[in-house]
Every structure is written in C-alpha cells, then in structure tokens.
Amino acid sequence: MKKIFGFSLIAMIGLLSACEKKLDLSPISLPTTDNFYTQPADFIQGVNAVYNALATYPDRQLNLSETRSDNLYAVSDGGVREWEGINSFHKTIAGNAYVTEAWSGNYTGIFKANLILEQLSGKGASVIADTSLRTRLEAEARYLRAFYYFDLVRWFGRVPVIDKTVSPGEALQIGRSAVNDVYSLIISDLQFAAAKLPEVYTVAADKGRATKYAAKGILALVYMTRSGSTYDINGPGLGLNEWNQALGLLNEIIGSSKYSFGASYANIFSYTNENNPEVIFDVQYNTGSTPVVGATFPWVLVPDAYFQALGKGTQGGLTIRPVSKNLLNSYEAADTRKGFSIQSGYVDNNGVTETRSFFKKYVDITKVPTTSRLDWPINFIVLRFTDVLLLKAECILKGASGTQADVDGIVNQVRNRAGLLPIANVSLARLMEERRKEFAAEGSRWHDLVRSGLVESVMTNWIPVEDVQKVMQPFQKNYLLYPIPQTELDVKPGLYEQNLGY
C-alpha cells in the first residue's frame, strides 16, 4: 500500500476547503479552479481529490455502524464520549461529531466529484485527447459520487440531491429529496461506471482505483438495500424485489475470475498482503508522506491503555468499547476468527487486569506508527470476495434464483476456512449470524441488520440482556436513521425537517 494516487494534491484540496460555505453540501467553485485544468495530469489529480474524501470512511463505519449494532456494548467508563450516544440510542445526538462528519465528509466528496465532472465535460474535451482516459476519469468520479450518496442514504434517508456545483445561495433553496430520487442518481452513476471502468489496471500506480467489478458490487448492494424492509420510515429500504438484479451482478463478479476466496482469514488483513485476490475495492492510504495521510481506523475501537501496556504511544481510542457478551458467546469454540479479531483482555501499566474484550482486527503491533497516530500503514477493505459470496446467498434466501444447496455451500466454504464444521438448511437469521462473525469490526453489522429486516427483533431482544448498566434507550424503528446534523438545520431553519425520533 505505499501509495494512493496523489492524495497529496495540496493546492487542489486547499482550494476546495477554502470554497466551502455554510452548508457542507454547497461549496462554490472559484474562477481559479478553471485555471488549474490545463493538462491531462491536472484532471487525474482532480479525480484523485475525489478519492481523498474516502479517508474518513473506515472510521465512520466503525463509529456509526459497528458501535450502533449489537457487536459492541460501548458504554463509556471514562467520562461521556461521542460514541456513547451512538451506542445507547440517545435522542440528542444531532450535534454528535460522528453524525456531523458523516454528512460533511460525504458531501465534500460529492462536491469534488461534481467539480471534476463539470471540468471533464467542459475543458476536458479539448485538453484530454485520449477519449478513453477522459471516459475512465468520468466513470471514476461518478462511481465515487454514487458511493458517497449511498453512504448518506443509509445513514440519513432523504438527503439533498446535488449533481452539479452550486453557490451557497442556490444551496439554501435545495431541500431533501425522496429516497427513490437519491437512488436514481446512485444507480445511474454506478451503471455508467460499471460499463466504462476497466476490469483491471495495468499500471502499478493505478492500483486501488475503482474497477468495473467494484461498481457492479456496490450496485448489487444498492439493489439489495432498496429491496429491504421500509419499516414505515423514509429510510434506505423501499421494499422492492430487486434480488435477482443484484444476483446477476454478483454472479458476474464471481464468474470474472478476477478475485478468489482467500485460504487464510488472517492473511486477508495482513499489512504485507494488501491488494490480495479477496479485495474488490478498498480505501488506500499513503503513509510516510507530508502532510500525513495514513490510516486512523486501526485504533478507533482499541483503548489507549492497551497500546501503552505494550510500550507504544497513545493512539486516540481513549477508553474501551467492549465487544458485547452476546457476540463473544456466539463464536463456536473452534472458530479461528475470534482470536484474530478480538483481544480478550490485557494487563495495563498499573498492573490492573482488564477483562473486557475489544476489537483488534486491524492492529499489527509491529506496525504502530512512531511519528504520528494518523499514519497507520494499512488499507481498509470496503468490498471483498467473501462478501460477494455471502451476499449471493442472501439474495437466494430472499427469493432470487438458486437453491438451498447453493446457500449451504457458500456458508460452509466460509465456515471451513474458520475451522468449523458444515451446517445445513441455513436460514436468513443464521446467515446474518455467519456474516456477523466473518465481518466483525468491518463496519457491516448495522447495515446487514437493517437490510435483512432483522434489526427490530435483534436489537429489541439484545438491549435488555446486554445493557447491565441500564443506560440504553428502548429500541424504536426511527433509530434506523441518524438525525440531520444540527449545524445543517441551523443554516436555514425550515429548509430541512429533522428525522423522526430526535
């Protein structure tokens, strides 16, 4: 991972930051932006700036999906922390930093995508003689714009659709769009990307860019998410029956022979085995650069005292976010994924034994940065081949073409790698439990529960048993969405209505 397409585009990123006004979705371009694009390399840098907005995506999934789910009982024991309101379903989290970042981070990426798309359709036609390059750059930008909007619609439901750069004044007239309208842009962008992106990149420096199969994989997940339960809220599920559309895309990925099922679970996440055949799309980081643009997600769920006990510097995880007893008890004795993903206690520098467990999945203690906690040298896998296989099984269980034997075969392939015996007649609930352990600490659990229709029953049953401190709010379906950030509501009162329940 010793790269990411020039995330060091300082001049461009600085310009974009300077352009942001009021609403995070509406930075306005300056005349100097047009002056920047004078050669093909400038357009490549412009697209690289769109990738840059992925930098906070991993942390967001750990803070908003993993922490919200039944995988963690993240009640703070060291003062009130931002994650406690997320974990405990507090109604007053509209000002929560994690919620605000989810909105602003994604809209920053969307603005950058809109900006480069306009430049490509304008000056790009005369500056970039290579039409295949111009088309590829457009496809990358549209893939990323769809990616950011998909993240937004899963967190907030209805959001403003902005498909061009707008002024602050114009943005103040744009309200939230219907979820189906948000999906229309997402699907259009991903279909274009799937048709125009290359299957692979032959130039080593382009490793990690979005491919045709990355677009097909995210599009399949979009169809599956749209097909999920509506819960009678304006959330990401529309109750559609698009499982076969998703299955077709997943089968294309499987049949491409571009990816394969890793023999070793731990090796998928090895610092020395990045871009392995399991990886379909990941967030890539460039370590050792100035400014620092490495990863921070490895320590998000790890308490600082653990690093200190091992003679390492404080990272930023602060106090412990314990893995829930429910998840710990769900692992079968022989499951090799448990020991790799979870640290079962430690002794701190004061000789005190911490008995609670926490996720350590991304921590290689030999790779702890020595100069900056913001510079971990590891990529974050967004979509991997095992996910595609298990999503296929989910589609079949939801009614897409296939048999129970197909489902059982997929699940048992995954279980075999984990050192477990085969099972039969896998149900949707059992499949979600298998996914829970396979993707623990990868940020998928909350999305899986919502998409599958199981979130109400799972969380309603989990909270009374797990919440020994009696601090969690009773679960209600309005909590499937996060609140619109208070900063956005305050810009122009009445422009956005708050999501129900907050």
What does this structure look like?
The longest helix is centred in the first third of the chain and has 26 residues, at 131-156. The model is unreliable at 1-31 (pLDDT under 50). Strands 1-4 form a two-stranded antiparallel sheet. The chain has a two-stranded antiparallel ribbon with strand order 2-3. By secondary structure, it is mostly helical. It contains 22 helices and 4 strands. It folds into 2 domains: 10-293 and 393-491, Serine Threonine Protein Phosphatase 5, Tetratricopeptide repeat (Alpha Horseshoe), CATH 1.25.40.390; 297-360, no CATH class.
Kindly summarize this structure in a few lines:
This protein has 502 residues and is mostly helical. The chain folds into two domains: 10-293 and 393-491, Serine Threonine Protein Phosphatase 5, Tetratricopeptide repeat, CATH 1.25.40; 297-360, no CATH class.
